Amino acid sequence: MPLFHDENRLITEQSALDNPVIRYLAYGIVVALLSIVQLIFSPIIAVDNIYPNFLLIFCAIIALREGQMVGLVAAFCAGLIYDVISNDVIGTNALASILAIFLVGYFHREGRFRQLVGSYRFLILVLVATLVFNLVYHILRIDTSEVDFLGFFLKYGIASTLYTTVIAILPLLVMARKSDI
Amino acid sequence: MFKLVKIVVEFKEYITLSMLIIICFALMSMGNAAELRGFRTIVVGGIGVAQRLFAWVPNPVALKSENKALRELNFYLSTEFAKSRKALVENEKLRTALEFKESLDFPVLSAELVGRTTAGMRNYVTLNVGRNDKVQEGMAVMTERGLVGSIIAASDNYSLVQLVINIHTRIAVKVEETRVNGILLWEGSEELLLTKVAKSLDVEAGDRVLTSGYSTKYPAGIVVGQITQVRDDPSSLFRTITVRPLVNFETLEQVFVRLELPDAERLALRKQLEEKLRTKE
């Protein structure tokens, strides 16, 4: 029975998300929530001023599920929302996000979303995307004539990339479990 | 049109990406771009690269204004160069003059030439020092290179110098190396003439000629010139010796006046002798 019940619930969930309007609405709500979570919880879980990028992980998931185009728009909106709520210069997170997610979007395969997110390949994609994100973001923010860019990037960029990749294990585990079911 | 739509559809991701990038940059530019130091560096660097790429395109207006600016700069630099060159020459001159002044064992007064007078073969110069500066008639005038002449008239603020190159000048001199005495005079040529030197006396070209102690007008030991030629005329007992003055009278600007008069006792004695000779005659 429990097995039957679980399968039923899965079918119901899938049906709801099949509607693109509901799905995109859900993405919007999650992005908004993640932006707030990113802003509020980042200082709590930050290690030496280094924190993970939840929004980028979620945008990578969207890009892998919906494709490059939707991923781009989602990354742009998510970056823009985060720029606004974090009082950053408008456009910086958006630009870094769209470039990172554009890369992830290349790996979108129709109907292979679960396998992709549920495997180690997802971690590699998140790693690359975060690396690109941090690279672009720090290039925009840091004056290379004043600060040693390589040193700064190695300390903050790489560390943040690794932290985000570690966090990306969570959706990987969830998706892997769902795939098993 | 259809082709264009096809291209747009085919490359919609790239077009979207480009548009979003442009929007992002536009948003960043509108925002507080000062915070984006890296962005600013990129923008400035990008503009620099673009300017360098198109630098070969001639801009007539810019060229014209650049030309004008360069001409003005050229004029300014030429003037400055001339000034510094003049200052350098003047500095060198003054340094030499100062060294000369310090090497003398009698008091001198520095003076500048303010005028030149030439009447026939009589050459005079006017100095900007006079009686108010303790300058008197009979004082010798010289430069670091050699003898110039002597003061023949002085007003309160000016004095007149009879130059060595004057038909009336007669200077008792001595050849530095051989100590041979003679009388130096000028006959209108570029060089002076050393007279009353017997053929038996040893004089050579290149020897320096100094004022001698026999002179009642000039202090002894002041360089006057250098012997350039020694000739023996068969019809004369004396040698014909030409002396090139070491002072360049054409470019003379600064001189020293010796603030000491010749020995008054010697002068008085000489006057007495001249009067006795006149009465005997």
Tell me what you see in this structure.
The complex is a heterodimer of chains A (181) and B (281). Chain A has helices at residues 2-18, 20-45, 54-66, 68-85, 92-105, 113-117, 120-141, 149-167, 169-180. Chain A has a single domain, classed as Arp2/3 complex 21 kDa subunit ARPC3 (Orthogonal Bundle), CATH 1.10.1760.20. By secondary structure, chain A is mainly α. With 281 residues, chain B is of the alpha+beta class.
Short description:
The complex is a heterodimer of chains A (181) and B (281). Chain A is mainly α and 181 residues long.
Features:
heterodimer; A: 181 residues; mainly alpha; Arp2/3 complex 21 kDa subunit ARPC3; 9 helices; disordered N terminus; B: 281 residues; alpha+beta; Thrombin, subunit H; six-stranded antiparallel barrel; six-stranded antiparallel beta barrel; 5 helices; 12 strands; 38% helix; rod-shaped
The CATH architecture term of the domain at 108-262 in chain B is Beta Barrel
Can you write the helix and strand succession of chain A as a string?
Answer: HHHHHHHHH
Fourth CATH level, the homologous superfamily of the domain at 108-262 in chain B: Rod shape-determining protein MreC, domain 1
User: What gross morphology of chain B would you assign?
Assistant: rod-shaped
Radius of gyration of chain B: 39 Å
Count the beta strands of chain B. 12
State the CATH class of chain A.
Mainly Alpha
Computed Rg of chain A: 17 Å
Beta-strand percentage range of chain A: under 5%
